[in-house]
Structures are given as C-alpha cells and as structure tokens.
Amino acid sequence: MAIMTSSTTFQPVLERIAEEIERTPGRGRPADYIPALAACDPRSFGMAVADLDGTVHGVGEWRRPFSAQSLTKVFTLALDLAREGDALWEHVGREPSGNRFNSLVQLEYENGIPRNPFINAGALVVTDRLHTRTGDASGELLSFLRTESGNPGLTFDQEVAASESAHGDRNAALGHFMASYGNIDNPVPTLLEQYFRQCSIAASCADLALATGFLARHGIRADGTRLLTRSQAKQINAIMLTCGTYDAAGDFAYRVGLPGKSGVGGGIIAVVPGRCTLCVWSPGLDERGNSVAGVAALDRFTTLTGLSVF
What residues are annotated to the active site? Predict the structure, then answer.
C-alpha cells in the first residue's frame, strides 16, 4: 500500500481504479422506481478527486452530469445547520436507522422525529426548515452548488423532478405523518415540490467533488469564508460516516473508512478531512440503494492511497 503525500497526484490511482472497475462483471441495477433514472447504463463510470485548493483529477465520465438525488442532503444539512445551529437536532436525530431510506416504521414509535438527516424523512425535515429560513430551499441549494463548484450552469432536471413527483406517494406519506406531530412547518405540497427539485439537480463528479470541499476544509468555503464551525463540519462528517449509506453504513465504514453519502442516481461523495474530497458515479445499485462500482472504487482508493479516517 502506498501512502500518498500532499505533492502526489491522484491521477495514476484513478486510472488504475478505472481499469479494475472496467473488468468487474457485476454492476447492479439502476433505480427503477424513478422512471427517469431507470434507463441509465449500469456500466457507466466516472470518478473525481478535488484537492483543497480546487485542483481536480478525474477519470471516465467524470464531467458528465448525473442526477445528484440524495447527495444533495449533505448540502441542505450544512446550509440549515449554519443558520440555526443545534436547534436543528430537536427535530431530527443523529442515529443510524437500520431501515430502508424511505421507511415509515420508526416515525410512529419516535413521535415524528426521524432518526437522521439522510433518510428521506430526516431530509424532508431539513429541507422544510431551510425553506422556512430562506423562502426557497432548493434555490438556496442550487446557488450554493453553483458557487462552490464554479459551474454556473448547474440546474434542476425538470424531467427527473416530475418523475419523482408522479411517484412520490411514500415521501408524501412521510411528510404528512411528521406534520401530524408538528414537525413540519410548511404545507406538505410546498415541501414536496422543494424536495423533489432539490433531488433533481444534475451535476458531474467534478462539480460535486468541488462542492463538498468545505467539509475537507473544516467548514471553509471555496472563497475562504466560513460556512460552518470546525465542530459543525466534524458533526456532518460523523453523520455521513454512520448514516450516509443508509442501512449499509457499517459495511461502507468497514470497506472504505471515509465519511460518505450515496444517492440512488448512482453517485457517492466522500471526504478525507484536511486532504481532499471525492465523487464517484456509476448508476448500477445494490439492494440497499448504493452504487456497486462506486463503493468498490472508493474501497480501492483508500487501499491504494492509505487515506482514511482510521
């Protein structure tokens, strides 16, 4: 295993990983419950690593936009936590759920308080609270991603948003159920519109690796201003490690050893605090909703570089 220094380029490592992934036979299946995502080729693959100074290394389809989906939950969490601080944790927990990302099971037992911000129920709460504070949660998110990635062309994918809305009954159920406990401020239809727009943002591995950089810089944005306190950045990284890949978080921590967040569009973002950020994309998913090739690629990255939080 090679331990990488700050002057070492990631490009040879990425190229080796891409070659290994290309030889991997099983890639999983795209998310078929969102029709706009079902047609994606499960063998597509891209990966990018962004240094703290904004230098980006990439391989494969690393500049091809894809549906960010639940990756956006990390950014809405950061934007809301920056505004309201610890008061947020009165409305959403910080524990792994042990259930699927769209489960309703625990909400009744726990009085409408979702287990964590990265399952759908928790993300709805965070989006609701950000919307109350900004008047346009999805717009605030898009503006942030454009600025941090340096890509003003990032936008919502209206086809994906419409597809999610047409098949969003379970998310609607989650929203109404939490509203019955007083844990949702805005009208549920308004919240769902914001949430579906949030999840529909299309961005590339390069865009998302750059946008995640503030977590590797301990809360500092690309322009040098502070979004989060060092403690808040640590908190988000910790929740990513324990909850970011749904009920596979333990296996992800075991294999990869980095804070990470997956999305059913096939993307995974990951953070090496104080060093770099990564985004990998391959739309074939396992039964828990995580990219098969994406997890394998991150596993190889930490093995080849020696970079992990452990």
Answer: 70, 73, 195, 246, 264
